[in-house]
Amino acid sequence: AVSGDSEGENLTNHRIYRGDDISAAGDGQEEGGNVVLNVLGLLDSAGDELFVIDTNEALARHFSRDTLLEWATVDTETTGLDVVNDRLVSIQIACASGIYVVVMNDDLDVGILRSVLENCGLVVMHNGVFDLCFLKRLWPGFSCSLYDTRIAECLITAGDSRGKTSLKVCAAKYLGFELDKGVREQGRSEEHTSELQSRQYL
Length: 202
Hints:
The protein is of the alpha/beta class. The chain is built from eight helices and six strands, in the order αβαβββαβαβαααα. A six-stranded mixed β-sheet has the order 1-4-3-2-5-6. Helix 1 runs antiparallel to helix 5 (149-156) and helix 1 (28-40) packs across helix 6 (167-175).
């Protein structure tokens, strides 16, 4: 599977932020860095369990149209980069209760996920324009309260990031975490999302 890794609201109101007070940061660069560091570190407060969902029964055990999440990090896996000719393989969500890999199939009522994400307090993506293209194709008119860590990095570096805004680069820069791109290549050929891949990219 492939994820688009090519190069709003007052965030301080969300309890997900930990560490240094954002308002106490020194200059703008440091302040912005703290914001990205805290957002990229959301998985630290996510549940440890990973759930693979591929039936409506499994989906109903974890989500309903009334589910209210304070925050969620979201990633999509697709068969390619072309929103017209390629398709979604999975929608991956990490939140306080766990990590969920929703495997797409024609029988799945994924409209439930639309309600969950549209009602979510904060949806975090990296290079969300890629994921949103596929989600808006699936759900015309879809919208959410989005924080895009790639856009944040571009703003923090005042456009001087020289194209180094990929998830791999940002994860290494702010978290000291090295993403294994080989895991993604494996998913591309096998058209499934492994547990390691899900934990890495969420």
